[in-house]
């Protein structure tokens, strides 16, 4: 039983990690707290829903489409809106993304209405047994994709030229500018990647739970907590923070009942903030 | 300078007098609208003390609103206190809560503080939700109805909210002129430098937050009495705090009248737009927020005071973009 709960916690944690990776990227590199990240995830879910319902596309195959659409949204958001205020201070950019969040929620609401939607391919709900453990296929594939995306992001940041430019800008914007990095462009690409990750995450979540256009706030809260737990702005931190939160929440729900789950994670976050302000992994992109 | 001060005072008195006689001219719906505008103006003015003067973005400030509302409700229902005692006790509790929580978390800077306040709001809301036997839980709780005619009740709420608004403006004014105000602004501009020049930052910040919490708590209590029904989702609604933040920035953070102006403007716009476009008013609000942040990041008050032209605004945007 304990193993099963732990496994469920890991499955949940993988999704949480995926929620936080993109959010933490934008925050760590640009100091932008993108409150609209949650709604970007929801848009990803709706892209998958649309493709599944009207084109009959398999939800897993729709991931590239939602990533592409969110990439465009993220790129234009940064280029045409956030780049104007990002230098001034965190609160301006935060307030701006809040406005954007309201805007996006209502656009989605106009197109898809506020009904609960879910994506249910033929294999959803099927599982296999390994010893006494029950493993749902969807959750397992989701786990694999989540970690694949994290590894790809890490490789991109460390091995490619653009990735190195992103990390350089994260460490010191002025110094990066001096050595010839086009900061405006790097910023646009960073938010685009962050949004694309949100898109992939949304596609995966659409198979796990039902969703409405208003689900974004829930994801944002989780992303906050995970960033605080794992430390800001590095891929490993988001993964570890996500896994910890997933396991703690599942265990907590098992022991104390589901009621206090949210309060527990909020209190853990505050305690970590006070006693370990740099998070468990700590430090920015290096 | 003296003449200018007197002029401001006279204008202030005239405007206050205008709001005092306004209920004779308007009725029903508009009295409620005005009361709700006053309410937002108080919350925004209170937020201004910690976020505008001290630069600490307390996004979860609405937790004090909830504490005020729930204390009032609990004292009226479970103890049988008159409503105003409940409101005052609620505000005091909110201030105490701010001091207790503020001592550890006001050490955090920047986003970390903002998020910690969000977390505290969330945790408190969850406790109010889960402690159903005492707080009524997610079903909410109904307060005893006022024993007076509904018209005069709404008029009374109007005047209470207006009185609280005056209190908020005066508090802001006093803080702006006092040593505390200068200390807070020094902390906002550079906390390390402020501490190096002899300001004991932790105490200043905690006092500022406690005052902010007290005012927000008062409003929460009056809100509970006014609506006579509260539930965790309404009184701990993070949207209220975020809206107050936008109002503060719209008017001009860190000034005395800016946040109040912002609250009046945004609420009036939101109220008139609401009637016109039922389905897309939130969408329009979102666009307003984006436009305000990009074009007038320092607020409308600054715009009026300096008479900034459009060309200067565009130049400003070019300067601040990466």
Describe this structure in words.
Chain A is mostly helical. Chain A has one domain (2-275). Chain A has 11 helices and 2 strands, in the order ααααββααααααα. In chain A, strands 1-2 form a two-stranded antiparallel ribbon. In chain A, β1 and β2 form a beta hairpin. In chain A, α2 (37-55) packs antiparallel against α3 and α3 (63-80) runs antiparallel to α8 (183-208). The mean pLDDT of chain A is 88. Chain B is mostly helical. Chain B has one domain (27-280): ABC transporter involved in vitamin B12 uptake, BtuC. Helices cover 80% and strands 1% of the residues of chain B. Chain B has 16 helices and 2 strands. The chains are: A mainly alpha (286), B mainly alpha (322).
Give the key terms:
heterodimer; A: 286 residues; mainly alpha; two-stranded antiparallel sheet; 11 helices; B: 322 residues; ABC transporter involved in vitamin B12 uptake, BtuC; two-stranded antiparallel ribbon; 80% helix
What is the oligomeric state here? heterodimer
* Helix fraction of chain B by DSSP (H/I, runs of at least 4): over 70%
Order of helices and strands of chain A: HHHHEEHHHHHHH
CATH architecture of chain B: Orthogonal Bundle
Note the run of SSEs of chain B as H and E. HHHHHHEHHHHEHHHHHH
Report the major sheet of chain A: 2 strands, antiparallel
Q: How many structural units, i.e. domains of chain A?
A: 1
Q: Which class do the helix and strand fractions of chain A yield?
A: mainly alpha
**What overall form of chain B do the CA principal axes indicate?**
globular
Largest interface: pair, residues per side: A-B, 47 and 43 residues
The CATH topology annotation of chain B reads as: ABC transporter involved in vitamin B12 uptake, BtuC
What is the rounded distance between the termini of chain B? Answer: 40 Å
Radius of gyration of chain A: 19 Å
Mean pLDDT of chain A: 88
State the CATH class of chain B: Mainly Alpha
Strand arrangement, largest sheet of chain B? 1-2
Number of domains of chain B: 1
Count of DSSP helices of chain B?
16
First CA to last CA of chain A: what distance?
A: 40 Å
Q: Report the strand count of chain A.
A: 2
Counting H and I runs of at least 4 residues, what is the number of helices of chain A?
11
């Amino acid at each position: 039983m304990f193993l099963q709960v732990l496994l469920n916690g890991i499955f949940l944690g993988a999704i949480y990690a995926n929620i936080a990776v993109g959010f933490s990227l934008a925050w760590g590199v640009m100091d932008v707290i993108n409150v609209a990240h949650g709604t970007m995830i929801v848009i990803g879910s709706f892209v998958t829903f649309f493709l599944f319902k009207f084109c009959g596309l398999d939800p897993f195959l729709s991931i590239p489409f939602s990533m592409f659409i969110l990439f465009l949204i993220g790129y234009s958001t940064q280029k045409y809106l956030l780049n104007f205020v990002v230098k001034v201070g965190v609160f301006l950019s935060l307030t701006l993304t809040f406005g954007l969040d309201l805007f996006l929620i209502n656009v989605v609401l106009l197109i898809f209405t506020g009904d609960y939607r879910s994506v249910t391919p033929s294999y959803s709900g099927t599982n296999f047994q390994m010893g006494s453990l029950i493993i749902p296929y969807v959750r397992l594939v989701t786990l694999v994709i989540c970690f694949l995306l994290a590894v790809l992001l890490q490789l991109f940041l460390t091995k490619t030229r653009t990735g190195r430019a992103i990390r350089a800008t994260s460490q010191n914007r002025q110094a990066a500018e001096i050595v010839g990095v086009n900061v405006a462009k790097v910023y646009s690409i960073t938010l685009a990647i962050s949004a694309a990750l949100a898109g992939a995450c949304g596609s995966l979540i659409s198979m796990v739970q039902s969703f409405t256009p208003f689900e974004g706030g829930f994801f944002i809260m989780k992303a906050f907590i995970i960033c605080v737990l794992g430390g800001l702005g590095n891929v490993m931190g988001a993964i570890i923070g996500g896994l910890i939160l997933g396991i703690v929440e599942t265990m907590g729900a098992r022991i104390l009942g589901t009621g206090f789950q949210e309060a527990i994670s909020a209190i853990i976050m505050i305690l970590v903030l006070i006693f370990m302000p740099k998070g468990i992994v700590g430090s920015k992109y290096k | 300078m003296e003449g200018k001060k007197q002029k401001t005072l006279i204008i202030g008195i005239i405007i206050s007098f205008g709001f005092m006689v306004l209920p004779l001219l308007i009725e029903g719906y508009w009295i409620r609208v005005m009361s709700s505008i006053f309410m937002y103006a108080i919350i925004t003015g209170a937020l201004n003390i910690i976020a505008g003067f001290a630069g600490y973005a307390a996004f979860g400030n609405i937790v004090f609103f909830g504490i005020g509302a729930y204390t009032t409700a609990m004292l009226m229902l479970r103890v049988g206190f008159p409503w105003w005692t409940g409101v005052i006790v609620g505000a005091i509790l909110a201030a105490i809560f701010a001091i207790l929580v503020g001592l550890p978390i006001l050490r955090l800077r920047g986003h970390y503080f903002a998020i910690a306040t969000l977390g505290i709001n969330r945790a408190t809301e969850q406790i109010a939700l889960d402690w159903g036997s005492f707080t009524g839980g997610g079903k909410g709780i109904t307060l005893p109805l006022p024993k007076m005619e509904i018209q005069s009740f709404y008029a009374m709420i109007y005047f209470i909210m207006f009185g609280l608004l005056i209190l908020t403006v005066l508090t802001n004014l006093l803080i702006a002129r006092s040593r505390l105000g200068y200390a807070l602004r020094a902390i906002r501009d550079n906390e390390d430098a402020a501490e190096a020049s002899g300001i004991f930052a932790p105490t200043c910040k905690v006092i500022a937050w406690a005052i902010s919490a007290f005012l927000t708590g008062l409003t929460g209590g009056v809100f509970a009495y006014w609506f006579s029904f509260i539930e965790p989702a309404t009184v701990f609604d993070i949207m209220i705090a975020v809206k107050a933040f936008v109002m503060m920035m719209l008017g001009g953070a860190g000034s005395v009248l800016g946040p109040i102006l912002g609250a009046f403007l945004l609420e009036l716009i939101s109220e008139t737009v609401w009637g016109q476009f039922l389905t897309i008013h939130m969408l329009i609000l979102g666009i307003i927020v984006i436009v305000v942040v990009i074009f007038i990041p320092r607020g409308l008050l600054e715009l009026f005071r300096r008479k900034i032209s459009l060309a200067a605004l565009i130049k400003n945007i070019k300067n601040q973009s990466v």
